[in-house]
Write a structure and sequence with these properties.
The structure is a single chain. By secondary structure, the chain is mainly beta. The chain has a single domain, classed as Hexapeptide repeat proteins (UDP N-Acetylglucosamine Acyltransferase, domain 1), CATH 2.160.10.10. It is built from two helices and 20 strands. The chain has helices at residues 7-13, 173-189; strands at residues 17-18, 22-24, 29-31, 37-38, 42-44, 49-56, 60-62, 67-76, 81-82, 87-89, 91-93, 112-114, 117-119, 124-125, 130-131, 136-137, 142-143, 148-149, 157-160, 165-169. The strands form three sheets. Strands 1, 3, 4, 6, 8, 10, 13, 15, 16 and 18 form a ten-stranded parallel β-sheet that branches. Strands 2-5-7-9-14-17-19-20 form an eight-stranded mixed β-sheet, with no helix packed on it. A hairpin with a 4-residue loop joins β19 (157-160) and β20. The longest helix is centred in the last third of the chain and has 17 residues, at 173-189. The radius of gyration is 17 Å and the shape is globular.
Length: 190
């Protein structure tokens, strides 16, 4: 048996929208597929959790053990790469001790930090990184492994650390390579 769902099986999962050339591991957990959209040429590996309102563009890889909790909405634009064990949260409990915490407690006893997350085109995020609620990661950003992203990140920069800090500018050569790739990819689709 193939470790990825076939096209017919993908249709039966019930996604709001599903593209072509999708490799979704049978070992991934998908919650609320009826509000999820997935573009073309996407690979989602083993043991990923996708939950909530999630929109995934095209030409994207989500490596093993990533968790995307999209209650407030997660959008991942084209040509992004999420390395292994990345956690993306659109809500988070208050850790101060002033309120109760965890999903088993009614909201009136908690204070939640909530906000949608937008990951622009050509973003690469290193393994074990955490993205917190309400963040926008600009086009072409590279986030180093084991980083904590709690603020918006400016386009075409390299960030790393806890919290993530700008290290230097990132080259834009990928834009030329994107044009070449898309030309070839479109010819292969004919």
């Amino acid at each position: 048996m193939n470790s990825f769902y076939n096209e017919e099986e993908l249709q039966h999962i019930g996604f709001k929208k599903i593209g072509k050339d999708i490799k979704l591991s049978r070992k991934a957990s998908i919650y609320n597929p009826e509000i999820m959209e997935i573009g073309n040429n996407v690979r989602i590996d083993d043991f990923c959790i996708l939950s909530g309102k999630i929109k995934i563009g095209s030409h994207i890889h989500i490596a093993a053990y990533c968790g995307l909790w999209g209650t407030e909405g997660i959008c991942i634009d084209d040509f992004c790469n999420l390395s292994s064990r990345i956690s993306i949260y659109t809500y988070s409990d208050d850790y101060s001790g002033l309120t109760l915490t965890n999903p088993c407690i009614p909201d009136k006893y908690k204070k939640l930090d909530k906000g949608g997350i937008y990951i622009n085109r050509h973003v690469i995020i290193g393994a074990f990184s955490v993205i917190l609620p309400g963040v926008e990661i600009g086009e072409g950003v590279a986030v180093g492994a084991m980083s904590l992203v709690k603020n918006n990140l400016k386009s075409w920069r390299i960030y790393a650390g806890i919290p993530a800090k700008e290290l230097k500018k990132r080259k834009k050569d990928v834009l030329k390579l994107e044009r070449e790739f898309l030309k070839e990819y479109q010819q292969m689709q004919r």
